[in-house]
């Protein structure tokens, strides 16, 4: 069966090839989305056959189908040659039964989708495998693309640098100076990318990289490029697959540039259209109150939208005041009866530390999502009997400095409710025994 996909403008419907170097509609300026021939997908397999195929491919050694993304190739980028796929066997990340944390906060059926358990430590790998593979295909077909570029607050740059290195394509990274963690900064450096540390914020980097991408030989890798979203949409499909094709009541996720919520919605809508599921979850987007344009717009029922000057936040990857995927995200939130909540720096830090006490190791962005979940439970928006999945976007090890400062109570303006600093002692049995006694094990 022949399957196909293309770019389509979300405003006027004009179509383009996914191998065109284009990011907005030439006619109306609208964002482009990848659309699929759904009739062909329906004709190719029944809903039960799709489920069986995806389950069969999970963790297989047959390249590239063991990848959580490429195991669903027909739904992602079907016309791509397998020889040009650049994969680290991303995806298929664990969905953690966080029943202990759930019992503590009042929602026993709580799960955490650990997207940070991936090659470069974040969910960005899922989209980057698609984008870099498409660029490799374009170059193989003779298109003059000299480099792939992105603006980043850390995770996107790590993913681009790794996948570009594996495909022998140069990568150009624009980072806001002093606003990414050491672990995030060293990843693209180690992978050989040209790393440009600019004296601005993410929005300033984004403006410049879009100017760079006006040169068609420099390909843009940020999430306004919807090839990324095609890979990231597999998160939602995996969540349902890992629950025996049952849909949770809620999905809570941290949001910055808003490509992730757009991707999540796309995956669910395609499953529903093809008959694999018969309902949609509700979606809760979580933002830091230091970078909250979507939350402010939500308060007006999306009738007003104004970019904000993003302030410094511990959740640095979502320190974004002018998200490029706002228009897409609003469409998804309306379709999924979604809500938006914001949290303070203290709320996100304590939520992450509380989760860590139950065996997790949360990045600050996951802390944003967990903090929002706690507030939505307190408000009665999310009910205690509902199944909730929180999306953890990155591995906590990328933000260990944040945790060190939290437990040493060095985070300015934050009361560390769950601080657990090391106890410094003389090297004696008596001192150790006394310290153990104080802990009251």
Descriptors for this entry?
Rossmann fold, 17 helices, 441 residues, 14% strand
Question: What do you see in this structure?
Answer:
This protein is an alpha/beta fold and 441 residues long. The protein has a domain at 95-121 and 229-407: Rossmann fold, CATH 3.40.50.1100. The chain is built from 17 helices and 13 strands. Strand 6 (147-151), helix 6 (155-167) and strand 7 form a beta-alpha-beta unit. Helix 9 (226-232) packs across helix 11. The radius of gyration is 22 Å and the shape is globular. The model has no long low-confidence stretch (mean pLDDT 96).
Largest sheet data: 6 strands, mixed
Q: Percent of residues in beta strands?
A: 5-15%
Note the quaternary state here. Answer: single chain
Estimated structural class: alpha/beta
Unreliably modeled segments: none
Helix percentage: 25-40%
SSE pattern: EEEHHHEHEHEHEHEHEHHEHEHHEHHEHH
- Number of DSSP-assigned strands: 13
Brief digest:
By secondary structure, the chain is an alpha/beta fold. The chain is globular, with a radius of gyration of 22 Å. The longest helix is centred in the N-terminal third of the chain and has 17 residues.
